Amino acid sequence: MPNISARSQAAPASPIRRLYPLAVEAKRKGKKVYHLNIGQPDIPTPESFMRGVREAKIEVLDYAPSPGIPEAIEAVRAYYAELGFPLAPENILITIGGSEAIIFALTVTCDPGDQILIPEPFYPNYLGYARLTNVEILPLTTVREEGFHLPPRAEIEARLTARTKAILFSNPGNPTGVVYTEKELDMLVDLALKYDLFLIADEVYREFVYEGRHKSLLSYPEAADRVIIVDSISKRLSACGARIGMLISRNREVMAAAYKCATIRLSAPTFEQLGL
User: Fold this and answer.
1) Mean pLDDT per segment of 10 residues, for the chain of length 276 residues?
2) Residues 2 and 80 in one domain
3) Of the candidates 22, 25, 163, 166, which lies 20 to 30 Å from 79 by C-alpha distance?
4) Can you give the residue range of the structural domain that contains 73?
5) Do the Cβ atoms of 198 and 165 come closer than 8 Å?
6) How many domains does the chain have?
C-alpha cells in the first residue's frame, strides 16, 4: 500500500475542532459548556446580510469571478474607506474565509523551507497552514507578565535567519487579546524594511478592542509593498459559517500571484458574497 505524504502526516488536526465532539457529548449529558475554543460570536448575524442572501435573484448559481464578485469587492472598499484606507479593486481578493487568505499569503511569499516569525501564543491553525505549505515557523515567545507584548527589538532580530521571509501576527491578538502599540508596529515595519521581509497582519478581530486603540498596518505607506492584510467577516458580522474572507495588499506582484491561486480554486462562495 502506498504511503500518504509526509506533509499530510505532519499537518496537525485543528485543536479547535478536536474539542468540538467532546463539547457535544458534554451537552448531551446536560452539562453547561462555555466555548472558549473557537471564535464564534453569540450575537445575531445582521439582518442586512441575511436579506442580501435571501433576496438574491439568481436563476443559475454559477461560479463567481475568482477575485470576488464586484459588489462584494465594492463593499470591502467602502468598509476600508470608512476606516481611512482607500483601496483599488485590484488590492482586494475575496477568499474562502480568513483561513484561505493566510494560506494564499504563505503560498505567494514563501518557498518550501522558508521561515516565518510568529509571536506565540498564536492562533493554533497557523501551524497547520505552515505545515501544508512547507513553511517553517519561528516562534517568538511573549509572556503574560508583559501583557503578551513583543519582546525587545534585539531579541526579535536574534531570531531572524537568512531563510526568514515574513512576520505573521494577529492584531488584536488571537488568543491573547493583546493590541500592539504604535511603537511596536513601528518596530515591525522598520524590521521589515531593514531585513526585506513581508508583514502578514491578521486583523480579523480589529473591531473587538476594549482597551487602547487598534492601528492597522495599512497606516504605513512606506511599507505598502511589504504589507499583506488578512481579514474576514466572520467576527464583525457574526457570520463564521459564510466563509468569506479577504486578502488585501497594495503590492501588485503579491496580488497577481494570489489571483493565480484564486483561479486554481475557481471562486469563493457566490451566495454568501451577496450578503455583503
Assistant:
1) 90 82 92 84 92 90 96 98 98 98 99 98 96 97 97 98 99 96 99 99 96 94 98 96 97 99 97 92
2) no
3) 166
4) 47-274
5) yes
6) 2
